[in-house]
Amino acid sequence: MKDSVTREQWLIDITNILRPLFSEAGGEIPEQVRITCGWPSQGAKSEKKRTLGECWGSDNSDDEHFEIFISPTLDDGAEVAGVLVHELVHACVGIKAGHRAPFKKLATAVGLEGLMTATEVSDELAPTLDALVKSVGVYPHAKITFDNKKKQGTRMLKVVCPDPACGWSARTTQKWIDVGLPTCVCGTKMEVEEQKKPPEGGEEESED
To answer: Domain holding 52: CATH number?
Structure first.
């Protein structure tokens, strides 16, 4: 089979090939289902419990389609297929079932295991998904990464007029200080204010 042109077509191709597997396990994948690569509504960037997939019920859609979203943080075809299987189970048993008995029954029947809120692909299912992905082609997506840590801004340094009668000050970056210190409005060349050294073992205090 030729490589899928879009991510959505790839996901649809995988879903259609999975239909017989679900039927044999006692579940029918709805015909009215849309699958896309997109951010889940919650937990998309969580570091501890990141949501990798999400399924919305047909009653949330104006044209009564199930809507499945696969996180763009994933780009490994087999992993994506495993998440898709989990979300398709939701579509089969209905969103109201949550991860309770109906979900668990079908999930384990198709080859998922572990905690039902974070299922894993079983050793029995893994080769099937690997072969399936190989037949469809490479998942046409490059994962999106992000840094949850707040990035530190450019440090601003204080430059002051050394003339006691003036006392004018301003802030600039090291980049411009290296180019040359500015001249004060009074005509005196400004100087970089001496920075207070933090106490041993402590952190440098920042000015408001």
So the answer is: 3.30.2010
Beta bridge partners of 160: 169, 191
Instruction: Judge whether 202 lies within some domain.
Output: no
Residue 104 and residue 17 share a domain: yes
Residue-range definition of the domain harbouring residue 170 = 157-192
pTM score: 0.69
Q: Tally Cβ neighbours within 10 Å of residue 106.
A: 20
Strands 66-70 and 112-113: unpaired
Amino acid at 88: L
Residue 178 β-bridge partners: none
**Are 59 and 124 in the same domain?**
yes
Closest among 53, 41, 49 to 11, alpha carbons compared: 53
Q: Is residue 203 part of a domain?
A: no
- C-alpha R_g of the chain: 28
- The pLDDT profile of the chain, 208 residues, written as one tens digit per residue, is 455 579 999 999 999 999 999 999 999 999 999 999 999 988 888 877 889 999 999 999 999 999 999 999 999 999 999 999 999 999 999 999 999 999 999 999 999 999 999 999 999 999 999 999 999 999 999 999 876 555 556 678 888 888 888 878 888 888 888 888 888 888 888 888 875 444 444 433 333 3
What gap in Å lies between CA 158 and CA 53, rounded to an integer? Answer: 49
69 with 161, same domain?
Answer: no
Going by C-alpha positions, the residue among 54, 62, 59, 23 that lies closest to residue 37 is: 54
- Tell whether 20 is covered by a domain: yes
